[in-house]
Amino acid sequence: MITIPDVARASEAARDAATGLGNSLALLTALNQQLPGINEGGPALALLQIALDRSPGSSGRFGPGDDEAFLVGYAALLEDFTARWASDEEGRPVGGAFRIGSDEFALLLPSAGRLGARRAAAALLAGGESARVALSIGIGIAEPSAANIGGVLLAADGALRTAVARGGGRAKLLVARPPDALGAQRVVEWLAERAIDTQQLLDKATQLALTDPLTGLPNQRALELFLVTELPRARRREYVLALLLIDGDSLREYNSRHGYSAGDEWVRALGATLARETRASDLAVRWRQGDEFIVALPETTREATTEIGERIRRAIPRATASLPAPATISVGIALFPEDGETREELLLRAEAANRLAKSLGKNRIAFASDVGRCG
Questions:
Q1: Which InterPro entries does the entry mention (predicted)?
Q2: Between the N and C ends of the chain, which has fewer C-beta atoms within 10 Å?
């Protein structure tokens, strides 16, 4: 099965050794994952850049011997803070805390908006005062009109510089805008100041951005990139390419009965099974969220696709036998060029075939060409 290489090493490269928080690379990767949702009309994202004040006479100044213990403790405080201020409707954290410099941290609050970001900054400043830690905070807001990595980095960094220049101990907010040539140079400087090798950044960020964190499989973006090259190749060489849309039959009920942690184990087991049961040339990805997966089979036939689909379907109950309840799957299959010649057409046809498989009793495969005949 095709995988995104060096994912484990990339994860280590994205972690700050002293505090265990994500580092600047992890922050950039997280922004790369979150910002597309903003561009699609999601709520405004907030990036808080926090500087600890070590200047002489600062009420929060601490000596060199206290550095490690202080930083570890402050990192834990920020993680707890982020969990409270950035979680989904089910209470699971969706934001992140990062150490991006010797005395600098960042908080990513994906759905805070301007008001939520100001409230979070005020709470951080108040907490700093009670802990005798002097802080300055820059807030960058990414709204749909200008949601890009460079813009939000420059907004947070510029806001922080303004807050520090005004005497520190305060927060300043700026709304991101697309960086011009001067802004692009400032982004490069931002990376250089944090000792990030640009090529390493691109390599590692790409690996992380194309990987689903729960299963370790490639994600939706990886499939899109794969099809950009594979569909034209299939057209030129006149071979069949199959998309198998695989959906667990009862994850919602499973989560309700056994809890979301057990549901995550269920999803991981499905992902591991796909990795084992597909060919070296195939691509298995976690699609969207929940228990949806897609397997792309280049240079295949209808018969070979049926064999692989059935092999996966039969393997799932065995792979999940040790869980509180074994899983079954429904598989919808679309073939290029028979069922469509574009990514969009093939996905729509695979979804229709998956719905057909479920309507026929679940735990089975169905081809897009069967939809009309069985409807």
A1: Diguanylate_Cyclase (IPR050469), GGDEF_dom (IPR000160), Nucleotide_cyclase (IPR029787), Rev_trsase/Diguanyl_cyclase (IPR043128)
A2: C
* pLDDT at residue 183 in the model: 61
The DSSP call for residue 45 is E
Say which residue the tokens 């299963």 belong to. 215
In angstroms, the CA 64 to CA 54 distance is 11
Three-state DSSP class for residue 2: coil
Largest CA distance in the chain: 80
CA distance to 56, 159, 228, 269, 355, per residue, from 315 (Å): 65, 54, 30, 11, 21
Distance in angstroms between the alpha carbons of the first and the last residue of the chain: 34
Q: Quick one: three-class SS letters along 247-288?
A: EECCHHHHHHHHCHHHHHHHHHHHHHHHHHHCCCCCEEEECC
Cis peptide bond N-terminal to 337, omega within 30? yes
Residue 128 has pLDDT above 60, yes or no: yes
pLDDT band, very low/low/confident/very high, at 60 (cuts 50, 70, 90): very low
Work out the angle at residue 263's Cα, subtended by the Cα atoms of residues 243 and 107, and round it to the nearest 5 degrees: 95
Q: Which residues, at least 6 apart from 165, have a Cβ–Cβ distance to it below 8 Å? A: none
For 327-369, the pLDDT digits (tens) are 899 999 999 999 999 999 999 999 999 999 999 999 999 999 9
Count of residues making up the chain: 375
Cα–Cα–Cα angle for 151, 140, 45, rounded to 5 degrees: 90
Secondary structure class of 95 (helix, strand, coil): coil
| Domains of the chain from N-terminus onward | 7-209 (3.30.70.270), 220-374 (3.30.70.270)
Instruction: Label residue 238 left, alpha or beta by phi (over 0 means left) and psi (-120 to 50 means alpha).
Output: left
Residue 14 and residue 349: Cα distance in Å, rounded?
39
Q: How many other β-carbons are positioned within 10 Å of the β-carbon of residue 259?
A: 12
The amino acid at 139? I
Backbone angles phi, psi at 171, to 5 degrees: -120, 145
Closest listed residue to residue 162, CA positions, set 183, 179, 139, 191: 139
Task: List Cα–Cα distances, 265 to 193, 217, 277, 294, 308, in angstroms.
Answer: 40, 14, 18, 18, 23
Contact 297, 226 (CB under 8 A): no
Q: What angle do CA 289, 85, 190 make, to 5 degrees?
A: 85
